[in-house]
Amino acid sequence: MRINFNVPPSTGRELEYIKQCIDAEKICGDGAFTKKCNGWFEERMKTAKCLLTTSCTHATEMAAMLAGIKEGDEVIMPSYTFVSTADAFVLRGATPVFVDIRPDTMNIDEKLIEAAVTERTRAIVPVHYAGVACEMDTITDIAERHGLFVIEDAAQGVLASYKGRALGSIGDFGCYSFHETKNYSMGEGGALLIKDEKYIERAEIIREKGTDRSKYYRGQVDKYTWQDAGSSYLPSDMNAAYLYAQLEIADEINDKRLKVWDRYYRELRELEEKGKLGLPYVPKDCVHNAHMFYIKTADIAERTALKAHMEKYGILTVFHYIPLHSAPAGKKYGRFSGEDVYTTKESERLLRLPLYYSLTEEDQGFVIDKLKEFYR
């Protein structure tokens, strides 16, 4: 038996939609399916503008450019995140300032952010780990009082919410990922959500290699020219077609993932009550999207043993980020504000279980049985 950690979602209509792109002889960026995806997110997330991008990394790079991040600036973020969160700002010459996480949600500790603010701080980047929202009221309050941008790394947060507001739509900019490991996938891809309309025109220019090509295609100018610094951030419309097939049944996919998540939680609760392991925590103001289900072992040694035990039965479980501040580039480009009380300790305990749209009840039951066997 082989149970993968992740299987990319597929609805059965992806090839049909990709063929439509080919038949229409429009496979480059900003085709019909790209526009459909943008419109879907604008309506669903109640945001001024959504622009599909080639990755969440590129969406974050665009946000950094729109926020005017430059050399010498500082950007506050957790160290427990993917490298793209920091890279987007390092490329602008800024310094990532890492803040410790909360051990319950693995999100940035909102109570420690203000102490990290200096005269050089320009933005706060909350990362909604596992599709569970950061404490956004506190974060936006700090940002407003200090005149800072809030750039949400909502790579894992599609269809999750905080106090009824979609993750990615709360800050000035929100960044989604549609990598093959995400709830909704286009292989490689992402999206930038823009809250304030005043940034839309420049965002379109940045995304189109610094040109006003989008205005040209809308008939607003008779030719397009180089207007600003930018890059090629448009995904192929074939990628968008693959994604749109999933957006059509987004709630069905979300419900299935939540069902898998809920079963893990229900059947492993006894082990948590006995003190054998830790389970995810979702604050009452948050609606998560079952992006992942993780457990926490006693320490890294137990995690290593458990991982080996599961692999013996063909079950792939994986840990997650190595804290950025401990990486060579993190030491070179960033700094840690305050003390690392939980970031390293909690990251070494975390192990993620298989969770995907096509996971069968039988396979999930096998995963649960073998995990329980280890703790017996």
Structure characterization notes:
With 376 residues, the chain is α/β, with parallel strands linked by helices. The chain has two domains: 14-247, Aspartate Aminotransferase, domain 2 (3-Layer(aba) Sandwich), CATH 3.40.640.10; 250-375, Aspartate Aminotransferase, domain 1, CATH 3.90.1150.10. It is 39% helix and 13% strand. It has helices at residues 14-23, 32-45, 56-66, 83-90, 113-116, 136-146, 200-207, 213-217, 237-247, 250-273, 300-312, 328-333, 343-347, 361-375; strands at 49-53, 74-78, 95-99, 121-124, 149-153, 161-162, 165-166, 173-177, 190-194, 286-287, 293-296, 335-336, 350-353. The radius of gyration is 21 Å and the shape is globular.
Low-confidence stretches: none
Task: Quote the distance from N terminus to C terminus.
Answer: 22 Å
Q: Mean pLDDT score, rounded?
A: 97
Tally of DSSP β-strands = 13
| SSE-based structural type | alpha/beta
Shape, per Cα inertia axes: globular
CATH topology of the largest domain: Aspartate Aminotransferase, domain 2
Strand order of the largest sheet: 1-9-8-5-4-2-3-12
Per CATH, the architecture of the largest domain is: 3-Layer(aba) Sandwich
Percent strand: 5-15%
Q: Helicity level, as a percent range?
A: 25-40%
CATH H-tier superfamily of the largest domain: Type I PLP-dependent aspartate aminotransferase-like (Major domain)
- Domains, number: 2
Largest sheet: 8 strands, mixed
